[in-house]
Amino acid sequence: MKSDLTRRAFVRTAAAGSAALAWLGLRRTPTVAAAAADKPALLGGTRIHTGGWPRWPEWRESWEPEILRVLRSGRWSSSGGGGQVADFEAGWAKLLAARGCVATSSGTTALITAMHVLGVDAGDEVITSPFTFIATYNTILMLKALPVFADTDPATLTMDPASIESRITERTRAIVPVHIYGLPCDMDAINAIAKKHNLAVVEDACQAWLAEYKGRKCGTLGDLGCFSFQNSKHIPSGEGGAITGDRAELLDRCQAFHNCGRASGSFQGSGCFSRGSNFRMQHFQASLLLSQFDKLVQETERRRENAAYLSAGLQEIPGVQPLRLPENSRPVWHLYAFRYDPEQFHGLSRDKFCRAMNAEGIPCGGGYREQYHDGLLDEAIASRGFQRLFPAERLKAYRDSFRELRGNRQVCETTLGMFQTLLLAQRSEMDHILAAVRRIQAHSAALAKQA
Ligand SMILES: Cc1ncc(COP(=O)(O)O)c(C=O)c1O
Question: How far is the CA of 405 from the centre of ligand 1 (A)?
Answer without folding.
Answer: 22
